[in-house]
Amino acid sequence: MGNRYRMIFFDLDGTLLDYARAEAWALEQAVRHTGLGWTPEVLERYRRTNAELWRALEQGRTDAATLTRRRFQETIPSLSDREAERLNSIYLSHLEQAGFLLPHAEETLLFLSSRYRLGALSNGFSRIQRSRLRAAGIDTYLAYVLTSEDAGTAKPDPAFFARALRDNRLRPGEALMVGDSPTSDIAGALGAGMDSCWISPGDDCPPIPRPTYRIRNLEELRTILG
């Protein structure tokens, strides 16, 4: 099935990297460092706020600078702009060290790297994502990395995927997008004319538009592309 592809693109967070674990660890370190008082409720509020702001970024309703400030001010309302920016800086310095892998990530990349050119497409900040890839020890498998910060736009904008295709001299039918998000990964790739593979460990209904493939974990990708 997979031999028609010249390149496989992977989402990072929720696909190769364990963002939930990285986020929790980095946030706790940052909050404790600044003496603000750490509780599980802080993490819950942060996750809710951060997810809402990233959706707004994907939809073009906010920008990265606003996101990085507001996610902490809405989590801890007593913070001034300056304090929020400082907390964000400390948080990111910890996050870039958090290279926690999801199951089967490294062995899947190792297996596929001898058969395909591999890349990563991520809605995130370039320095942070590249540092996390190095920390995880999987950067050497990826010949290409594009973040929303690099591209000036975010998944699911077809222009983001068009940039990745153009940079790698690919036609849409020559690339496969692998990711866990029905919107930013699956709908985005299909909007650019690319095939997609949705990672969904549960029994969720396939998103509309439907992905080309559906797998429960990365290990199953080898069956499709091997």
TrEMBL record:
Q: Which UniProt keywords apply?
A: Hydrolase
User: GO MF terms on file?
Assistant: 5'-nucleotidase activity
A Pfam short name: Hydrolase
Say which domain of life the source belongs to.
Answer: Bacteria
UniProt-listed InterPro entries: HAD-like_sf, HAD-SF_hydro_IA, HAD-SF_hydro_IA_YjjG/PynA, HAD_sf, PGP-like_dom2, Pyrimidine_5'-ntase_YjjG
Q: Which NCBIfam families match?
A: HAD-SF-IA-v1, HAD-SF-IA-v3, YjjG_YfnB
Q: Which PANTHER family match?
A: PTHR47478, PYRIMIDINE 5'-NUCLEOTIDASE YJJG
Instruction: Tell me what this protein is called.
Output: HAD superfamily (Subfamily IA) hydrolase, TIGR02254
